[in-house]
Amino acid sequence: MEMKGDMGPRTCTGCGGVYTPHRMNQKKCSQDCPGRPDEERICANEKCRASFAIAAYPGHGRGAQRYCTPNCAAQASRWRLAGRFRRYGGMTPEQFQKIAEEQDGRCMICRKEPVPDARSWREGIWALEVDHDHLSGVTRDLLCGHCNKGIGHFMDDPELIRTAAAYIEHHRKQDGPFRP
Question: How many CB atoms lie within 10 A of CB 45?
Fold first, then answer.
């Protein structure tokens, strides 16, 4: 089998070292490329914003390192969580946990345990979302992402949701064209 392109030694775009690629489109020497040892970065933690050298935080994936220390990364995670709850009318993580406990850790509409979004780090009850009325801003209950987004896509309009339910019921019976 003949391969197109040059698979000879290349210069790594991450650390600048020379390596032999395993794939045609490979640009870095390895998945754990440390990046340039002299590269300075700014900590992604908004409370810190210290500059640090990549070599100061050894470990896997140093090329993608965003925080100056593991402790700084943990603090940023707690601040992100607190920020998420500030958006919900001042609800605290403890209040969220209490509501989730009252709902048995399930969505208030479908009664299923929440499944984390593929793009989210949240698991368990933390994958539940706080539902709120878009007109008044009043917090309602905790919903799974599917139910919360569904209500949002129906613009919080009960009549539109009832019409959609009638549409689905009609087509399950296969009675011909739907007439609302």
Answer: 21
Neighbours of 21 (CB within 10 A): 17
pLDDT tens for 63-93 read 567 777 888 877 777 777 777 777 766 788 8
- Pair 154, 161: CB distance under 8 Å: yes
What token pair was written down for 31?
């998945």
For residue 86, what are its two tokens? Answer: 């500030």
d(CA 105, CA 98): 10
Instruction: Give pTM, 2 decimals.
Output: 0.56
For 11-62, the pLDDT digits (tens) are 887 777 788 888 888 888 877 776 665 667 788 777 888 877 665 444 444 5
Domain boundaries, the chain: 33-86, 90-174
Superfamily of domain covering 90-174 = His-Me finger endonucleases (3.40.1800.10)
